[in-house]
């Protein structure tokens, strides 16, 4: 089991000159308190990590901070009843990488209550290929199911299709038997999206203009990682009794729409939060990911880099130019 008192960590500091990001040598004593210590083997980059590293949005609320909202690794020390040295674990969210030191480091120390045991059928690299983006896509699928969506009800739209949440959502929905409509700004990724299981590709420009109160009914459900006018259009074009799971803001935080779809078509808007989701729901989501996510499709959407590359990748994920998911080897 790898364990070291000295390790590399990506550290964000803030001073008069603004935010600085640099690799530093850290020791266990530099980490924050916690009852479990983990040797990190893999991490990933999510949209929020891009915001943290670039400082484009104030997601980091404590300095110095090690970013990285996800990691997989092996427990090296534990005072928590559920974990012992040697256990394979996964961490998603809980403010890690924002208020508690995160995954872009050789070691992490945190509350054991935040960890889950790595599902037996998934490797550490596969768990990070899924990451918060994929686990959020699963939470969104669970929300659609909880509101009665089923393949026979009609097609499901996925916006931000070529991104991380979108790619995993398409793979999951198509395996579950849904006809998936993928909305993307990258027509060049049509073959990639069809390979993941999209039956139809639409241009995201179709959905980004000012929304009418009600539009033609086009989908029974949707998973939206874009927000703003796109989400308003998605809701306005949802079929009677359908459900839209809102999980992202790649276009914007606003929602300039009408209540008409809710009060005239009984449409449900389901909010998705991965960060503070209770442990029981996380375990359900990870169980379903282990059973319902096609591994060949997961591999097809994943690019692997050394964690040293993460600072270069941060502006790229914010620009929407990263396809699918990234695994970072720590
Ligand atoms: P990615 O950057 O991988 O994907 C976002 C995708 O959105 C892009 O690939 C692009 O897809 C599309 N997009 C980007 N900019 C715009 C724009 N201006 N207008 C319309 N579409 C755009 O990010 P993730 O998949 O990791 O995350 C997606 C969103 O979900 C983020 O906003 C993130 O913060 C949020 N999120 C929320 C979570 C939660 O707990 N609620 C957890 C995880 C993520 P394409 O090229 O196909 O058009």
What does this structure look like?
By secondary structure, this protein is α/β, with parallel strands linked by helices. It has two domains: 6-118 and 299-329, Quinone Oxidoreductase, Chain A, domain 1; 131-271, Rossmann fold, CATH 3.40.50. The protein is 28% helix and 28% strand. The strands form three sheets. Strands 3, 4, 5, 6, 7, 14 and 15 form a seven-stranded mixed sheet that branches. A six-stranded parallel sheet has the order 10-9-8-11-12-13, sandwiched between helices. A two-stranded antiparallel sheet has the order 1-2. It is globular. Residues 46-48, 132-133, 136, 160-166, 184-186, 204, 208, 225-226, 230, 247-251, 272-275, 317, 320, 322 line the site of NADPH dihydro-nicotinamide-adenine-dinucleotide phosphate.
Based on the model shown, name its key terms.
330 residues, 9 helices, single chain, Quinone Oxidoreductase, Chain A, domain 1, alpha/beta, binds NADPH dihydro-nicotinamide-adenine-dinucleotide phosphate, globular
Quickly give the structural class.
alpha/beta
Largest sheet: 7 strands, mixed
CATH level 3 topology of the largest domain: Quinone Oxidoreductase, Chain A, domain 1
Q: How many structural domains are formed by the residues?
A: 2
Q: Tell me the total number of β-strands.
A: 15
* Count of helical stretches: 9
Kindly state the mean pLDDT as a whole number? 97
Percent strand equals: 25-35%
Q: What CATH architecture label of the largest domain applies?
A: Alpha-Beta Complex
Question: Could you estimate the helical fraction of the residues in percent?
Answer: 25-40%
Question: Could you state the order of secondary-structure elements as H and E?
Answer: EEEHEEEEHEHEHEEHEHEHHEHE
C-alpha end-to-end distance: 14 Å
Could you say which small molecules are bound to this protein? NADPH dihydro-nicotinamide-adenine-dinucleotide phosphate
Question: pLDDT below 50 for ≥5 consecutive residues: which ranges?
Answer: none
CATH level 4 superfamily of the largest domain = Medium-chain alcohol dehydrogenases, catalytic domain
CATH first level of the largest domain: Alpha Beta
Q: Any idea what the radius of gyration is? A: 20 Å
Gross geometry:
globular
């Amino acid at each position: 089991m790898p364990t070291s008192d000295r390790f590399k960590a990506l550290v964000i500091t803030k001073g008069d000159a603004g935010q600085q990001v640099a690799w530093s040598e850290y020791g266990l004593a530099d980490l924050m308190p916690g009852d479990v210590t983990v040797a990190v083997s893999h991490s990933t980059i999510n949209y929020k990590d891009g915001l943290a590293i670039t400082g484009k949005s104030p997601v980091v609320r404590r300095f110095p901070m090690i970013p990285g909202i996800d990691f997989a690794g092996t427990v090296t020390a534990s005072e928590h009843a559920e974990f012992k040295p040697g256990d394979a674990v996964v961490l998603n969210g809980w403010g890690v990488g924002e208020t508690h030191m995160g995954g872009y480091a050789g070691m992490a120390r945190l509350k054991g209550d935040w960890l889950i045991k790595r599902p037996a059928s998934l490797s550490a690299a596969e768990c990070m290929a899924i990451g918060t983006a994929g686990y959020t896509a699963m939470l969104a699928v669970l929300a659609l199911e909880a509101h009665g969506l089923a393949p026979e009800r009609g097609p499901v739209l996925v916006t931000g299709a070529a991104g991380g949440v979108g790619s995993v959502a398409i793979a999951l929905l198509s395996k579950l038997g849904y006809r998936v409509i993928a909305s993307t700004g990258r027509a060049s990724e049509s073959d990639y999206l069809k390979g993941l299981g999209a039956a139809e590709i639409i241009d995201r420009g179709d959905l980004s203009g000012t929304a009418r109160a009600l539009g033609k009914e086009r989908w029974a459900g949707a998973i939206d990682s874009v927000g703003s006018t796109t989400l308003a259009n998605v809701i306005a074009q949802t079929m009677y009794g359908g459900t839209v799971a809102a999980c992202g803001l790649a276009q914007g935080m606003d929602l300039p729409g009408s209540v008409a779809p809710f009060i005239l078509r009984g449409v449900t808007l389901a909010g998705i939060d991965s960060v503070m989701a209770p442990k029981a729901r996380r375990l359900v989501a990870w169980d379903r990911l282990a059973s319902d996510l096609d591994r060949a499709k997961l591999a097809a959407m994943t690019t692997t880099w050394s964690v040293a590359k993460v600072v270069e990748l941060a502006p790229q994920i914010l620009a929407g130019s990263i396809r699918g998911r990234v695994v970072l080897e720590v």
